[in-house]
Predict the 3D structure of the following.
Amino acid sequence: QVQLVESGGGLVQPGGSLRLSCVASGFTFSSAIMSWLRQAPGQGLEWVSMVTPGGNTTRYQDSVKGRFTISRDNGKNTLYLQMNSLKPEDTAMYFCAKGVGITGDRGQGTQVTVSL
């Protein structure tokens, strides 16, 4: 079965950086489009970014463009999200997901809190 395990979240000050990781198993990672999703307190789940199987094409939600970078290492079955210039509004539970939608398989999430 699909398993996705996120890590790397934490508390960071505004302007800081974090790198999230997601280790995947139970499917052919190198053939799958992968995404990051997030859910802020009291809000719905939203798509943040996606990367194609070979890593050649990426897409981002407008609010994170230029600050977040998605990448993958197919040899390690691992997805990454480098987050720079973090803002308080980036505070959320971040999930890695198989595919591009918000209704598919996803992990348990890792909490990111941006605050002084």
Summary: The first strand starts at residue 3 and ends at 7. The chain has no helices and ten strands.
